[in-house]
Design goal:
Number of strands: 13
Strand content: 25-35%
Bound molecules: zinc ion
CATH superfamily of the largest domain: Hsp33 domain
Structural class: alpha+beta
Order of helices and strands: EEHHEEEHEEHEEHHHEEHHEEH
Shape: globular
CATH architecture of the largest domain: 3-Layer(bab) Sandwich
Radius of gyration: 21 Å
Distance between the termini: 53 Å
Number of domains: 2
Length: 315
């Protein structure tokens, strides 16, 4: 397998395929910027789920969005945010879960769903495959607290606009969200996103300048093709005194599944069903988040009942 990105266009750990997150502020702290280069994340998602071209773009944008939302909404490094996009298109739904520490995972209902390139602008038809009627829901999973979910109707199915609408309508966080995935030669060449959040006290002049900058940039995907992530941030905050936090943060596609969790999931089945699994030579358990296939052997299934495997000393 080749590395997932043209390294000359990346501005962090140029010898590594890792994805990363950059943060900054502008206009005296009245704008907060969070950006991610998620190229290796989206490529791994494409390979793991055997995603079609359009499904790759839809899930890649959602994975970037989940990372950006986790940074913006998460209070602690392990705070997680789950983004669910449920549209009426052939993709079915998208689920992406990000953590503020840079771990993200996700899947779609129908990874093979695809549509021809859009005639209108020559771009992948993400809104066509997602659907423009439906809902976007965001759940915050916080330690020692009840999960909090907010949702709004989809506005376009292009993901970025929908996330921005969610943030302003449900979280009262006015923001601009840009998400893009560029595929070339059958793989992900560049994937990334930028979220600019307007903080209390932001001036009208700052907002006008930000809007003009983003308009002048053109499509984010075109920018990601030729610019580093830092350059994209600089363009968005042109003339607004961007201050970038020096340390980039590593990000990666990382599932929370394990062989042990896969084995334990078989405990939901009754003894007789597990006996049948053993007689049939074992049982395959598939993680829907990352499409990892765990082949659980008859011996492992038998061991689930093995008293040696259980804590002792309790009646
Ligand atoms: Zn998994």
């Amino acid at each position: 397998m080749t590395l997932p990105a043209p390294t000359s266009q990346r501005n962090w750990t140029p010898d590594s395929p890792d994805s990363f997150i950059l943060r900054g502020t502008a206009a005296g702290g009245t704008l907060r910027l969070v950006a991610t280069d998620s190229t290796s994340i989206t490529e791994e998602a494409r390979l793991r789920h055997r995603l079609s071209k359009t499904a790759t773009a839809a899930l890649g944008r959602s994975l970037s969005a989940a990372l950006l939302l986790a940074v913006v909404l998460g209070k602690k490094p392990d705070s997680r945010v789950t983004l669910r996009v449920q549209g009426d298109g052939p993709l079915g739904w998208i689920v992406a879960e990000g953590a503020a520490d840079g771990q993200v995972r996700g899947y779609v209902r129908d990874p093979a769903a695809d549509l021809p390139i859009r005639e209108l602008d020559g771009k992948l038809d993400v809104s066509g495959v997602v659907g423009s009627v439906g809902e976007i829901a965001v759940t915050r999973l916080l330690d020692n607290a009840e999960p909090y979910t907010g949702s709004v109707p989809l506005v376009s199915g292009e993901i970025a606009e929908d996330v921005a609408h969610y943030l302003s309508a449900s979280e009262q966080i006015p923001s601009a969200v840009l998400l893009g995935v560029y595929e070339e030669g059958g793989r992900v060449s560049r994937s990334g996103g930028l979220l600019v959040q307007a903080m209390p006290g932001v001036s009208d002049e700052t907002l006008s300048r930000l809007e003009a900058n983003i308009r002048a940039m053109g499509p984010i995907t075109d920018n990601l093709r030729v610019r580093t992530l830092l350059e994209v941030m600089q363009l968005a905050a042109d003339g607004l005194d961007l201050q970038v936090v020096a340390q980039a943060q590593a990000a990666r596609f990382q599932c929370r599944c394990s062989r042990q969790k896969a084995k334990n999931s078989l405990l939901y089945f009754g003894m007789q069903e597990r006996q049948e699994m053993m007689q049939e030579g074992g049982q395959e358990v598939v993680c829907h988040w990352c499409n990892e296939h765990y082949q659980i052997t008859p011996d492992e299934i038998a061991a689930l009942d093995d008293p040696d495997d259980q804590p002792r000393g309790q009646a």
